[in-house]
Amino acid sequence: MIQIKTLEEIELMRESALIVSKTLGMLATEIKPGVTTKHLDKIAKQFIRDQGAEPGFLGLYGCPSTLLTSTNEAVVHGLPTDVPLKEGDIVSVDCGALKNGFYGDHAYTFEIGEVDAETKKLLDVTKESLYIGIREFKKGNRVGDVGFAIQQFCENHGYGVVRELVGHGLGKKMHEDPEMPNYGKRGRGKKFLDGMVVAIEPMINMGTHRIKQLKDGWTIVTADGKPSAHFEHDVALIDGKPEILSTFNYVYEALGIQSNEEDEFKNHVTANS
């Protein structure tokens, strides 16, 4: 059952999403060789609480951490560890926040120092596929239109699109209807309606799309040990068009990156800068 949100509820969701965005921006200044993901987890928990919110993942389905930190061949759901990040690594940081009864859920894959060209291209293509998918989240389209667009773009670059893990509806629960796969067929699946809010999150592997779960019961890794990238935005459908509630701009500000990639998805005066 898809939960349609009012404009007022969407504004509350924007607040939760932006707390996650600010957390990722804060972490961007901390992520460097020698830092552990357990350290990132600790400071993220405090930061979210300082914003008047609660960590969205902590305790959810028994999750023991505030962040899910997935390094190199880890796709998603990596648990923070004491292993220091090293030059050339990549780490997907997935984070949630709960405020005013609504969740934000948002992820970015960071480069640690200098990353090789092949891995950098994987990150660029995966992030671009996120916006390609968001463009299809519009009135008259269906779930399959988003998945098809992401799948075609990534597979045309020779990458594997993970099947077992998908994006999702978002609201008073972390995971609501509809599921939002990163693969699919045009015109298939549930129809998009104004007031829907979804988390679109391509999980794209450099090699095979196949994955496996580690013994910790959480961490998902690529079956061939090649790197994987993951980017995620929270998106509302307003007046038939997609509007991003989260933003990578805090990350970009911290890293000194200039970008206007989100501008086309800011349709309202209330949209974040």
Describe this structure in words.
It is a single chain. This protein is 28% helix and 24% strand. It is α+β, with helices and mostly antiparallel strands and 273 residues long. The chain is globular and about 45 Å long. The C terminus is likely disordered.
Rg for CA atoms: 17 Å
Strand order of the largest sheet: 8-7-9-14-15
Give, in order, the helices and strands: HHEEEEEHHEEEEEEEEEEH
Number of helices: 5
List the helices and strands and how they pair.
Elements: H1 7-28, H2 37-50, E1 54-55, E2 67-71, E3 74-76, E4 90-99, E5 102-111, H3 117-135, H4 143-156, E6 160-161, E7 167-169, E8 176-180, E9 197-200, E10 203-205, E11 211-213, E12 220-222, E13 228-230, E14 233-238, E15 241-244, H5 249-255
Antiparallel strand pairs: 1-4, 2-4, 3-12, 4-5, 6-10, 7-8, 7-9, 9-14, 10-13, 11-12, 14-15
Helix pairs in contact: 1-2, 1-5, 3-4
Main features:
273 residues, alpha+beta, five-stranded antiparallel β-sheet, 5 helices, 28% helix, globular, disordered C terminus
Task: Briefly characterize the structure.
Helix content is 28%, strand content 24%. With 273 residues, it is α+β, with helices and mostly antiparallel strands.
